[in-house]
Amino acid sequence: MAAPRLPGLPPPPLLVLIALAAAAQPPHQAAFRAGHGAASLPAAAAAAPRRRYLLYDVNPPEGFNLRRDVYIRVASLIKTLLKHEAWVLVLPPWGRLYHWQSPDIHQIRIPWFEFFDVPSLSKNIPVIEYEEFLAESGGPFIDQVYVLQSYAEGWKDGTWEEKIDERPCIDQLMYSTDKHKYYRGWFWGYEETRGMNVACLSVQGSASVIAPLLLNISARSVMLDRAENLLHDHYGGKDYWNTRRSMVFAKHLRVVGDMFRTNFLNSTDEKDRTQYSEDWTKMKVKLGTAIGGPYLGAHLRRKDFIWGHRNDVPSIQGAVETIRSLLKLHKLQRVFIATDAVAKETEELKRLLPEMVRFEPNWEELELYKDGGIAIIDQWICAHARYFIGTSVSTFSFRIHEEREILGFDPKTTYNRFCGDEESTCEQPTHWKIVY
Ligand SMILES: Nc1nc2c(ncn2[C@@H]2O[C@H](COP(=O)(O)OP(=O)(O)OP(=O)(O)O)[C@@H](O)[C@H]2O)c(=O)[nH]1
Ligand SMILES: [Mg+2]
Quick one: signal sequence residues (predicted)? Predict the structure, then answer.
């Protein structure tokens, strides 16, 4: 079942545009326009224009920051679908992430608003939380689940082409049927959720390659599992950046980071010449405007990176030497360190670098913000430093680069990374310019 190519799709019919406009309005307004008294229908049903739902999930071992990248890819798919039909993206609840290992705190079924500002996301594409989907769509049922996979045979003749085909599942299916023939699976920790149909799709290409297929089937709710198999429609393009800029961190986390900057790093937006708008669509800061707080920001990715990237990740000692020389070069007294290092390593860090500053949550803060929130606070503080240095090929560091680009830092102060102790070339990260 080879899907037709996108350019062949018909233009969006008028009715669809009207439905789209209704979908973009606050639910109660849309209901009134549709001629219903709000009281005459259950609230959720009244709120629901006939829009279709796109859900997705990512390979379990993938971390928080790659997942943020996958969101950007899926958002561009939604933008393509919206040219033809009213679709909404259902935000996949966070949880059970490999790195989120703090014991005794509840870390599944976490809605997006705990980490991101959902109204900001909505200024880019229509989104709803999973629980809103449950209420609006009439229950924990997903009409069609597609598990994305690559092609068993790899690239044919070594030539790259974008394609998508329903194929037998290559890996063992992570869904099984219950006695009513419904499919059961992880579904972000929502046990009661059921899939009505599950199939595997081999895919090779950018996110929108799947659009024609989605527009051709009748399932109202479609979940793409293993969505990381989709590539970016246009990495670094305007759509990419619009989506990235819309991924504003939740305000409560930014506030905690800002308080920490003020109290421990002598850093405020005024002093640092940070131009910030709560409305990301109004932010377009000239590079070099922001000077950042009087501290060095360093992201030291440890754990699996120590053995996974043996050549380009420094020893603790090597990192401290680099930090010392950067402090001297930039005439800074303070260094803020974001790291996932284990206790033994942070003790060594403290011994070698007694003046370092870290955000160390107490148990209540950890329970409140969770591992994901603490990571965001770390990223936010690094994003406001006079000079930043990150870890080679860490998506955690990449997300800090982007944040600093949005804030308007001179690229020289952003695209830097630690070198491995024995590394000779030590290529520095690429500067990705925002396209507004
Ligand atoms: N609080 C905090 N957590 C961190 C830090 N560095 C890593 N982590 C945790 O470890 C996870 C890193 O995993 P990813 O988000 O996959 O990013 P990455 O592992 O650096 O990059 P890739 O695996 O290459 O995509 C984060 O989501 C955090 O949970 C840090 O400096 N501070
Ligand atoms: Mg990772």
Answer: 1-24
**Residue of 101, 366, 394, 396 best suited for mutating to test ligand 1, as the one with most atoms within 8 Å of CB:** 396
C-beta contacts of 373-376 below 8 A and 24+ residues apart: 373/114, 373/115, 373/250, 373/253, 375/64, 376/115, 376/249, 376/250, 376/253, 376/257
Ligand nearest to the CA of 379: 1
**Residue 18 clears pLDDT 50, i.e. is over it:** no
Average pLDDT, the chain: 90
pLDDT of residue 160: 83
In 46-115, which ranges are E strands? 52-56, 87-91
Residue type, 51: R
CA distance 343 to 340: 9
Ligand nearest to the CA of 298: 1
pLDDT, tens digit (0-9, with 9 covering 90-100), for 112-152: 999 999 999 999 999 999 999 999 999 999 999 999 999 99
Q: Output the pTM of the full model.
A: 0.88
Specify whether the CB–CB gap between 303 and 334 falls below 8 A: no
Q: Ligand 2: distance of its center to the CA of 395 in Å? A: 7
Residues serving a catalytic function are 62
